[in-house]
Design a protein that fits this description.
The chain is of the alpha+beta class. It has a single domain (3-149), classed as Cytidine Deaminase, domain 2. The protein has helices at 3-11, 15-23, 77-85, 113-124, 129-143; strands spanning 27-35, 38-41, 46-48, 61-68, 90-97, 100-107, 144-149. Strands 1, 2, 3, 4, 5, 6 and 7 form a 7-stranded mixed β-sheet that branches.
């Protein structure tokens, strides 16, 4: 299943709003909820800068989270830490590249918990900026599920 296309369809109507918020340096985030065969955005959303808060679903089960990025086209280490600690199967970011809104999703559920715990320890102990960026790249590639334009 292409989760970028699936979740991109859910968030498509919000792209203009997300882009407007981005112009004010504000991020948008929401859970993706599944109830039976129905997938939808959660009823709750978060606005802020540098968010790491994970919302639960009011109905159904949280199967992913989505949040916008102001500048970066990669999940930060804090994004990965929050997703792994909250045991969310997938996390997606919305970002803009060359004038096009894109969705990039990461998958955590395919990795053993022991491996995720080792990665968490590495992420928590990254100390300098150069090392931080190197590990952002490393974990971006490791957990990447898909990266698509929002259509």
């Amino acid at each position: 299943m292409n989760y970028c296309k699936l979740y991109g369809k859910l968030i498509k109507d919000w792209v203009g709003y997300i882009d407007k918020l981005r112009s004010y340096a504000i991020e948008f985030g929401t859970p993706i909820c599944r109830e039976g065969n129905t997938i939808r955005m959660g009823n709750k959303a978060v606005l802020g800068f540098g968010m790491s808060r994970i919302l639960e679903c009011d109905v159904g089960v949280r199967e992913a989270t989505i949040h916008s990025h102001i500048v970066s086209d990669k999940a930060s280490l804090q994004d990965h830490i929050s997703a792994i600690l909250s045991e969310v199967p997938r996390q997606c970011i919305i970002y803009k590249k060359d004038g096009v809104e894109r969705i990039k999703c990461y998958e955590y559920s395919k990795f053993p918990k022991e491996e995720l715990q080792k990665d968490l320890e590495i992420m928590k102990n990254v100390s300098d900026k150069i090392e931080y960026l190197e590990y952002m790249d490393k974990f971006d590639k490791k957990y990447l599920l898909c990266d698509e334009p929002i259509e």
